[in-house]
Amino acid sequence: MESVKSQSYEVHLDELAKAAINQHIANKNYSKIFLLVDENTKEHCLPIFKEIFDHSIDSLLEIKSGEENKHIHTCLQLWEDLSNFDGDRKSILINLGGGVLTDMGGFVASTFKRGIDFINIPTTLLSMVDASIGGKTGVDLGSLKNQVGVINQPQMVLIFPKFLKTLDARQTKSGYAEMLKHGLIRDKAYWEDIVAKADFTDAARIQKSIAIKNDVVLQDPTEQGVRKILNFGHTLGHAIESYCLDNPNKKTLLHGEAIAAGMILEGYLSHELRGLSKLALDEIKKAFLTYFDKVEFTEDDIDAILQLLKYDKKNSHGNVNFVLLQDIGNAATDIKIPEELFSKAFAYYKE
């Protein structure tokens, strides 16, 4: 399957991915090869990786899985591990895991010795279609998502759809939310295709989603303009995700589950402010509620979630900036929201 060319690297799939990593390692003469895993990818994905990888791993680094471990203390552990195992500027870190692991592994590599090479091998659908493109690395600050990080590109990203067989259904559906988002912001035909028939592991669709995100990123690598459309559903979605992560009385949501709710809410705001038709809005709500359970919000929950909006990374000069849809496949950025519309959006979500 054809590779996707990004800024300074390529995303390779399946057999091309296998050939690419083995040739790259053979040519580069790295002083140390480090492999980063969590307990899940160590058990389920490492055996598959060893069949793919023709070279020796010098040191295996392991972290605990989960968003709650995506913080600077885990980075400190990894920087110390790299140093204790004699890592130097000619080392490479291979990140084998989902978006939490590749975000954090990329950040650790980008800052250790002022930057060493890294390769990302995403093992979840979410990380394949989202975190694999764009070079965003980083960690959370408390429960606030991705507050500390840098944009830095990997040597390559390798997609092996066989890793998806190691996931439970909930994790796979979480990634499908990002695929649906790609259709909503950029490609109406793609949206209609993946809404009409769900296939969470289809390699051609994975490649299509990667290509859509890549096209946006190539136009705006540092998120000054059009790249912001990739944040549709994420302004409220990240606030919902952070609130549920930090509240012991709420079920912790996967990223895709939170942004699915966020896309319905921001779809309503799009209808009110950017002319998204009621028919399209209802279609969006129906599609997401087909795959994702409705999240229960009390008035206190909503107030707390709205308070978290001030920490969103897209904010500028004290303003909370939203991405909204003008139509399915057509998004607009930097939209300010009248405060009274938030309660109406949550009321529509609850209907």
What this model shows, in words?
By secondary structure, this protein is an alpha/beta fold. It has two domains: 4-166, Rossmann fold (3-Layer(aba) Sandwich), CATH 3.40.50.1970; 169-350, Dehydroquinate synthase-like, alpha domain, CATH 1.20.1090.10. It is built from 14 helices and eleven strands. Helix 6 (125-131) packs parallel to helix 7. The mean pLDDT is 94. This is 3-dehydroquinate synthase. Residues 175-315 form the 3-dehydroquinate synthase C-terminal domain. It comes from Flagellimonas chongwuensis.
The succession of helices and strands, N to C, reads EEHEHHEHEHEHEEEHHHHHHHEEH
| Low-confidence segments | none
Amount of beta strand = 5-15%
What fold name stands as the CATH topology of the largest domain? Dehydroquinate synthase-like, alpha domain
User: How does CATH name the architecture of the largest domain?
Assistant: Up-down Bundle
Gap between N and C termini, in Å? Answer: 43 Å
Which geometry do the CA atoms define?
globular
CATH superfamily of the largest domain: Dehydroquinate synthase-like - alpha domain
Backbone CA Rg: 20 Å
Q: How much helicity do the residues have?
A: 40-55%
Averaged pLDDT: 94
Largest sheet: 4 strands, parallel
What is the topological layout?
Elements: E1 4-5, E2 10-13, H1 14-28, E3 33-38, H2 39-44, H3 46-52, E4 59-63, H4 72-84, E5 92-97, H5 99-111, E6 117-122, H6 125-131, E7 139-141, E8 144-148, E9 157-159, H7 169-186, H8 188-196, H9 203-219, H10 234-246, H11 255-273, H12 278-291, H13 299-308, E10 322-327, E11 330-335, H14 340-350
Parallel strand pairs: 2-9, 3-4, 3-5, 5-6
Antiparallel strand pairs: 1-2, 7-8, 10-11
Helix pairs in contact: 5-6, 6-7, 6-9, 7-8, 7-9, 7-11, 10-11, 10-13, 11-12, 11-14
